[in-house]
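Its record is retained below.
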Amino acid sequence: MQQVRIAVVGAGVIGARHIEEIGRSRSWWKPFQTDVVAMERKDPLAEQIEHFAAVIRGEAEPLVTARDGLQNLRVTDAIAEAARTGRIVNTQ
């Protein structure tokens, strides 16, 4: 299974390519695989609140774990600290 995550960081920066592949070589020089998918535009905050309410009502399972949420906060705090200090911050 191949997962490709692309994050664009800041103005003037082309982006970052993070690739997690099993049994395949990694390279910036290989062409990207592209697909076109249908998309319905929705308010992401409204969708998140609706899902949260469905979880509380017992109608849905959480999409992320508490551990995922904690790691997200660690990364967010590290980003703020790195911006403040100009240093690399370990999130482990």
